[in-house]
């Protein structure tokens, strides 16, 4: 359906639509470990359920696909698109930060968006300071490609976060994009009451009655059904939801619960096959067992998120870092410090990359003393590298501690701000020069997709591409095999189907340890292989076992 027809359908509908945010549920509740084959298994029912869109890409998922799962993010999109040809695929993009944590050069941003636009239909785009110029290159490339643009306003609470501020931001966005977009309210931490969300939606609709609104929230406090209900009753046309068999705490609230609640208010969900929706959850309940080791150590809803405002997407990774860093028991102190730091630094939006800056600052403050070990990203924030502070700047004493920390030239913070402050666009690389460099590393021609991945994550993309060349598409293994713990026994036989439904067969012949390596001999589709893998953390002098 053409873009204009899709937007007209949304504007003229009496009911509302749902986006299944599989990507955010995976990131928020399962540390981004969802494998493509789980999506393929549930795809026929997702397609039949008729969601407006399914978010399967973006945020941290692209980096984690390369880093932890050896999955090509473009291939994930191709597979899902084949499995659900009638469903719109959605991504979330961090404006000038793309799918990373720092601003990218403009030519890299435009090149990356053009490549992903070949597969992604709906682009949800935000900036953690709500600084609209940071999003313009993405806006322009998405609109040039004829895809659906969903510019977002990040929402939070506090005296600065008034309706007039957010209505002004919507006006600023529409002035750049024109009216043929969907404006998204990004409630990244699940903040505010249903009444507050209703007021905000009404304020935007009063100023821009023809604008289509989308709501994205997290369910950390357990109240996002209330907020989504209020949003739809006030005029929102699309909400992000989860499968009730797969959603957990920090991601989205369940679709079926929202549908049942809004029915009581006379609001009907559009085009939804409820039987297929329930079947999706029946399958995902079984799949969920595979991903249980990646669920957060802190389970259960947390209404105190209203103070520390940690985005749902960062919840799993922060608790994991605290556990690995040996300071998990100090999380209550750290979360309290996050609330304090957020107010001190300007009460903007705790969403990537801002959420990482807040988290790192709060952890360092608790472990080493307040602002005694500022990160480079905090320095860049105070220097205005990410954009201007939306409401107020940090106090002088914080600027002094942060900017003068380990300063070899002894410059004072006022002088540093005067001579080095403000946004500095990153230098644009020579893309063909980077392609030549990558070809030299891989000793083969590289595609535009390879180059896009390399430009964003040079080390991790190179590592992934080398792995893929050596081992093939290992992610085709079922997730219960990929995440298997404890190894495989000689004689074990594994049968599975790939994304085309083609059956495959693996038989483990033997497995043994030699020094730091484990050697496994096996038949793969009746062809004999021996694979040697170095054990993580083992040294080369380990005795054979």
Walk me through what this model shows.
It is a single chain. This protein has 545 residues and is an alpha/beta fold. The longest helix has 18 residues.
In short:
This protein is of the alpha/beta class. It has helices at residues 3-12, 22-29, 36-49, 61-68, 73-83, 106-116, 136-144, 163-177, 194-207, 224-234, 255-263, 274-291, 305-308, 312-325, 331-345, 354-368, 376-383, 396-403, 413-420, 431-442, 448-456, 458-471, 479-482; strands at residues 17-20, 53-58, 88-93, 122-125, 148-154, 182-187, 212-217, 238-241, 493-497, 503-514, 517-524, 527-534.
Shape: globular
Major sheet: arrangement of strands:
1-2-3-4-5-6-7-8
> Which blocks of ≥5 consecutive residues have pLDDT under 50?
540-545
The tally of beta strands, per DSSP, is 12
Task: Lay out the secondary structure.
Elements: H1 3-12, E1 17-20, H2 22-29, H3 36-49, E2 53-58, H4 61-68, H5 73-83, E3 88-93, H6 106-116, E4 122-125, H7 136-144, E5 148-154, H8 163-177, E6 182-187, H9 194-207, E7 212-217, H10 224-234, E8 238-241, H11 255-263, H12 274-291, H13 305-308, H14 312-325, H15 331-345, H16 354-368, H17 376-383, H18 396-403, H19 413-420, H20 431-442, H21 448-456, H22 458-471, H23 479-482, E9 493-497, E10 503-514, E11 517-524, E12 527-534
Parallel strand pairs: 1-2, 1-8, 2-3, 3-4, 4-5, 5-6, 6-7, 7-8
Antiparallel strand pairs: 9-10, 10-11, 11-12
Helix pairs in contact: 2-14, 3-5, 3-12, 6-7, 6-21, 8-9, 9-10, 10-11, 15-16, 18-19, 21-22
